[in-house]
TrEMBL record:
Keywords: DNA-binding, Transcription, Transcription regulation
Matching Pfam families: HxlR (PF01638)
One MF annotation (Gene Ontology) recorded for this entry: DNA binding
UniProt feature coiled coil, ranges: none
Protein known as: HTH hxlR-type domain-containing protein
Chain ranges of the HTH hxlR-type domain: 12-110
InterPro entries recorded: HTH_HxlR (IPR002577), WH-like_DNA-bd_sf (IPR036388), WH_DNA-bd_sf (IPR036390)
Amino acid sequence: MKEMIVYASETCPMRAACRALEGKWKIPMIYVLNENGTLRYNELKRALGITNMMLSNTLKELEEEGLVIRVQYNEIPPRVEYHLSQLSRQLIPVLDAFCQWGEVLLAQEQRACRAGDDCRDPE
């Protein structure tokens, strides 16, 4: 009999991955940095439509987890740029597949709208 997978276990790889990406903004931030390359703080803010507090907290967490690299240049005015680490680049094929799945969902929604069904599920 196959051994049961226990998500609650500290050694569960899915739990470790989910913990690293938990929160509303981490996956979108990795996606935006992958699509646009190195970005400055305000560029990230515009691209995500995120508040300063959420952007700062999310960047700090991603940097601590080794998923985003922060580069500060000693200039006046100060310039700080962010880009993906090698560790987060390993996630890109998964995000690409997730994006393709999103395309399927959007196409399904568009077909439902053209057919006269509700365009959005009310629940």
